[in-house]
């Protein structure tokens, strides 16, 4: 005979905040797949080459070994981000698929993978692959979620161009309709555009944010809007992060991974103004990313914004902070975490 589980009517179910670890993966100059970490999206050492001022790709470890370590240490989710995949297609990117296959054998928390999930034409065979076909390869290799970056920005631009109507042909729509919205993550890479006043911004879709004293622009500007970029931060588009997030949710995204180029690698904490603006504009979960440098930065962003998760990379890779330390700090600040 089974016995009912005791139930205390005075207790309430509470969602815990998630600690996510990101692994930026790319080939180094020797062709090996490594985990690296950028400083405002630059992943090369600064002064190895006297002529260029740039050295080799930072090598912080092997992807599967690092991911396994983070799973053992208590990461709630792990994200593999293929940061050079815009140069080639995923279909022929066998090393990255093999990394995901091996990781899924020994890691039992959700795995997100991003990079290169878009429609493209194979230059050798001429065969056209849809974004859904590319995403399917990742899912079959063990991914729980896929993340789209540049393609999401292009889809958002089309969404507003068509009068906020779903066209049915975007990568977001195609993948979420087959695999569900919970499997569709949008990665947004914005940078600040400083202005003296909201009136200085002509495009009414741009959400202008007031900055605190520590975030003022180089000429004392008190406001900014967050301009989205594509192609790994290399190209700017005339659309803001809030607009992209709203469009992505309407098209079928289930989560936003919100980066900030200005804060990336700075270890000064997350951009709270950005996190507040975007998380307040959508109903789907937002993952805060870019800027974590100490355990307290997680508690700070959870306490001061409504993001549901926060992500870090470099401070974990370099073993400056342990995941357990982050979670203990969260609990000591009254923020529930999976211990």
Which percent band covers the strand fraction? Answer: 15-25%
Low-pLDDT sequence parts: 50-55
Task: Quickly give the structural class.
Answer: alpha/beta
The major β-sheet equals: 8 strands, parallel, barrel
Mean pLDDT, to the nearest integer, reads 89
Number of distinct beta strands: 15
Number of helical stretches of at least 4 residues: 10
The succession of helices and strands, N to C, reads: EEHEHEEEHEHHEEEEEHEHEHEHH
**Order of neighbouring strands in the sheet with most strands:** 1-3-4-7-8-13-14-15
Distance between the amino and carboxyl termini: 32 Å
Shape descriptor reads: globular
Share in helix: 25-40%
Rg over CA atoms, rounded to whole Å, is 20 Å
In short:
Helix content is 29%, strand content 21%.
Can you put this structure into words, describing what you see?
The structure is a single chain. The protein is α/β, with parallel strands linked by helices and 339 residues long. It has ten helices and 15 strands. The protein has helices spanning 63-73, 94-106, 131-141, 150-161, 171-179, 241-251, 272-279, 296-304, 314-317, 323-332; strands spanning 18-27, 33-36, 77-82, 111-114, 120-121, 128-129, 145-148, 184-188, 190-195, 208-210, 223-230, 235-240, 255-258, 286-288, 309-312. The strands form three sheets. The chain has an eight-stranded parallel beta barrel, surrounded by nine helices. Strands 9, 10, 11 and 12 form a four-stranded antiparallel beta sheet that branches. Helix 1 packs parallel to helix 2 and helix 2 (94-106) packs across helix 3 (131-141).
């Amino acid at each position: 005979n089974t016995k009912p589980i005791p139930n205390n009517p005075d207790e309430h179910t509470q969602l815990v905040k998630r600690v996510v670890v990101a692994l930026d993966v790319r080939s180094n100059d020797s062709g090996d797949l490594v985990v690296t970490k950028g400083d405002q999206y630059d992943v090369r050492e600064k002064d190895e080459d006297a002529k260029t001022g740039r050295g080799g790709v930072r090598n912080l470890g092997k992807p599967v070994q690092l991911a396994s370590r983070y799973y053992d240490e208590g990461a709630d989710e792990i994200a593999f981000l293929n940061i050079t995949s815009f140069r080639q297609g995923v279909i022929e990117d066998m090393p990255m698929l093999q990394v995901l296959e091996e990781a899924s054998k020994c890691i039992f928390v959700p795995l997100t993978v991003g990079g290169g999930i878009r429609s493209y034409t194979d230059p050798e065979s001429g065969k056209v692959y849809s974004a859904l076909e590319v995403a399917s390869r990742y899912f079959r290799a063990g991914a729980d979620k896929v993340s789209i970056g540049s393609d999401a920005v292009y889809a958002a631009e089309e969404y507003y161009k068509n009068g906020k109507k779903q066209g049915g042909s975007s990568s977001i729509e195609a993948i979420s309709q087959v695999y569900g919205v919970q499997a569709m993550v949008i990665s947004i890479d914005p940078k600040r555009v400083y202005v003296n006043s909201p009136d200085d911004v002509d495009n009414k879709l741009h959400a202008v944010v007031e900055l605190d004293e520590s975030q003022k622009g180089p000429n004392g500007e008190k406001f900014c809007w967050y301009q989205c970029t594509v192609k790994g931060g290399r190209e700017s588009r005339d659309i803001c992060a809030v607009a992209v997030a709203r469009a992505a949710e309407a098209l079928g995204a289930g989560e936003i991974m919100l980066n900030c180029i200005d804060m990336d690698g700075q270890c000064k904490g997350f951009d709270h103004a950005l996190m507040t603006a975007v998380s307040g504009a959508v109903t789907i979960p937002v993952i805060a990313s870019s800027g974590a440098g100490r355990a307290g930065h997680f508690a700070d962003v959870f306490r001061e914004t409504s993001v549901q998760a926060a992500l870090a990379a470099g401070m974990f890779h370099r073993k400056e902070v342990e995941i357990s330390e982050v979670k203990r700090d969260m609990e000591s600040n009254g923020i529930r975490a999976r211990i």
